[in-house]
Amino acid sequence: MVWIPSLMQKLTGGAEQVAVTGATVRQIINELEAAYPGFRARLVNEEEDRLRPDVAVAVDGEISNEGMRRKVGESSEVNFLPAMSGG
Amino acid sequence: MLSSHGEIRSFGDEKYKVVGTRPIRHDGTDKVTGRAVYGGDTRLPGMLYGQVLRSPHAHARIRSIDSSKAEALDGVKSVVTAADLPPTASDEMVDLGEGPARVKFMRDNILATDKVLYRGHAVAGVAATSPHIADEALSLIEVDYEVLPPVVTVLEAMKEGAPLIHEDLTTMELGEDTDKNSNIASHMQHTLGDVEQAMAGAHLTAEFEVHTSSVHQGYIEPQNATAFWNQDGMLTIWTSTQGAFTAQRQLGAILGVPVARIKVVPQEIGGGFGGKIPVYLEPVASLLSRQTGHPVKLIMSRADVFEATGPTPGSYIRVTMGVDSSGKLVAAEAYIAFEAGGYPGSPVFAAAMCVFACYDIPNCLVDFYDVVVNKPRSFAYRAPGSTHVAFAVEKVMDELAAKLGVDALELRIQNAATEGMRRSDGIVYPRIGCKECLEVARDHDHFKTPLEGPNRGRGVAVGYWFNIGFKSSVTASVNNDGSVNLVEGSTDIGGTRTSIAMQFAETLGLAAEDINPSVGDTSAIGYTDVTGGSRVTYATGWAAYEAAQDVKAQMLKRVAMVWEVEDDEVEFDDGVFRHKTDASKSLNFKELAAKLDDTGGPVVGNGSVDPAAGVGGSFCVNIVDLEVDPETGKVDILRFTAIQDAGKAIHPSYVEGQMQGGSVQGIGWGLNEEYFFTDEGRMANSSFLDYRIPTTLDLPMIDTVIVEVPNPGHPFGVRGVGEASIAPPPAAIACAIKNAVGAQLCVLPMRPDRILAALDEAGDRVSVAAG
User: Which residue from B65, B225, B309, B402 has the fewest beta carbons nearer than 10 Å?
Assistant: First the structure.
């Protein structure tokens, strides 16, 4: 289950949570992109193949330091949220 | 149990031999005898002295800089400006371990390129044979400025038509560029549930609107740096920093030099509190050293520290909360706008994480804004952002309690955050100690003792800091006398050499005094993130635990070799190596260490961690009694108790020290401290005479209660303790003032004139009995 940040919910037609499958955060993002085009551009720095610096991901309540490589379980909960930033 | 120090209330049942004791700190003798070496003590052969020219304007365009007269002055060896820094792409980012940073902004903050964005912004650096010559040279540098109108408050900066500080800055909304030119660098939002519907259905609501001023960390030792750029291209920096590796990365990005060519030597540090994570002088000293071929040393004056380093931001916050008829919180809404200073990157993100973190609220909306203004670039200050939002939220809680006619502390307990609760940012809590801290407060002698006398009041507030994990490294070398040299990468600010050594000692059944801890430079130890986020005793302590496990594994092989048995026939138990079946065979750690030379040589253990999961947040509750002089508005703190969840207190004295230090800073923030800016954006109080931090004469003893709700995410149950204690004091003081004299304070600091104005507004400048 992915919790959609409120500022991105216009991409999901207002849905706050969506169910997608994937074994990693990368796969989750790809699934989101397939279902809701535009998602990936909001989350990923394509040049560096990593999450944008202003975006963090939490899996099962813990903010991950593994970015898109973070493994995701079948019943995991994924949150995308603003990252702490050094400016 | 009640110790001879502070009180400890434990909710865990673990038993330790070293952890939880109070050994004398390893660096104590050097510190109290004055032998500890700080950055200002650095002396190198042929060393030159540098000074920095700073902008007298809060906002101006630099038309030209002419340094020819300064360069001609006898004794001046070099003058550098932003033109001496390598160019950088506008969107290049560098990961500093505590979050990414835009290199262009970092670089422009070191030496202004085309505009100065705050008074004190560095414009040029000079190296000379004496500090006085360097000083004189500054006066000979001619800078032609086109002065621009400044914007110095967050609400002014957010207005349509406000002067733009960065003409090309547009507002970002979580990865989406709004293409709207503005001083609002970013707008973010957290939502949970349906706040509109829940608020509409609430039995009662309360709203509070607050303004807070910029506040400095107030460390006693000013920023300093000595650089030597050797002819072989190797750059060495001796500096006062909270993170040698982070300083190395910043320098690499700003100077365009590979980190392999930079060594940062962290000196002892005279306070940081978040303010010594960014570099300021280091790149300037480096450029001057490269140009002259000499070591160059720079030290900031106190005025420079105030005007040119990053304080915590000023802010505007509006909070509305609603309860049902039983007092259960049903909805909460916050609007948070922070002054980032000249460049984006305020801790508003952290504020948004903390704002409703103490309470179980099913419906939340948090809008938060990072806004540039013509002030120094803000940086971290102890629980960045949490004190600001606690001031607003806790005042609302008191108002709700008053409207409901219930005790304010009981209302907090009723709604306290607990394990399994989802926070407004979506994070679900593991085991936490919020409710335990509040209940300990309710049962504390302070809370149960009646407060008597006119114009006296009691306030209670709670605050939160989430703490961080991040990367840490420790290396342990076993000596043949059984002592251990422990090298760690974390700058020791609050006694962490000892708290880390204690965790190592506990793991191997040694005494804390058997460990010789030291802080390594960037060439001596593995990568370690900053001393910040209350992470060192947690994460570097965990690395020490891992290093001890590594040592133990190697020592088990050695003892098997000594007894000429198989590895699986030996074990380590309670500090002793034993044969599993032959009770006659046992060696303690020291006895085995004496045999290392004959069994393969040195044993060196390593531990490196990067814990993301398991970082336990910490809550702190304050009870404060005070008296207000209704004639002058002066506030005297009569009694102050801080109650904080430490998980497990490794060294209780240091935990108490952190709690007391954070409390004192919070009291100063609440009553006295602020950057006072003129309309032109000039700080009018850039000295400790006029920027008043509390002294011992202003304070009672800060009583402490350590609450131990073990963190399941750490080998010893540790939670970071360095920050949460600064969050609740201003709120607790504001609540106490309201209860003392009825004055509603909504601006920090709560200066005497503001208290008198609030009394006037209440129409009642007369004594109000406590009760």
Answer: B402
